[in-house]
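Blinded run. Sample ID left blank on purpose so nobody reads anything into the name before looking at the predicted structure. Input follows.
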Amino acid sequence: MKRLAERLKNARTGLHLSQDYVAKQVGINRAAVALIEGGKRKVSAEELSLFSKVYGFSVDELLAGNRSELPTTIFARSFNELDEIDQREIVSLIEFKKMMKAQRANND
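Blinded prediction complete.
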């Protein structure tokens, strides 16, 4: 259980999510998230399923610690959940970042 607690905490912090945000997504309070991450509270199967959706990890990956999904897969899944306006904004940001990178390369 301690390893699962660490994986849950690492997944949350790696995504820069607050305990409060995760708690709201999972339907528990922030203190429960803290207890789970501290290894002081067990996680129900339903909660684990919700954690996996929030973090973009499979339940198996959270339990076993094997990360098989690439960041691009997580991005694509999240991108498809956005509305068209938000998708266009992200595409514009990507184009802007590519342009800035090209300018930096030309200046070096």
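Unblinding after everyone has recorded impressions. The chain has two domains: 2-64, 71-107.
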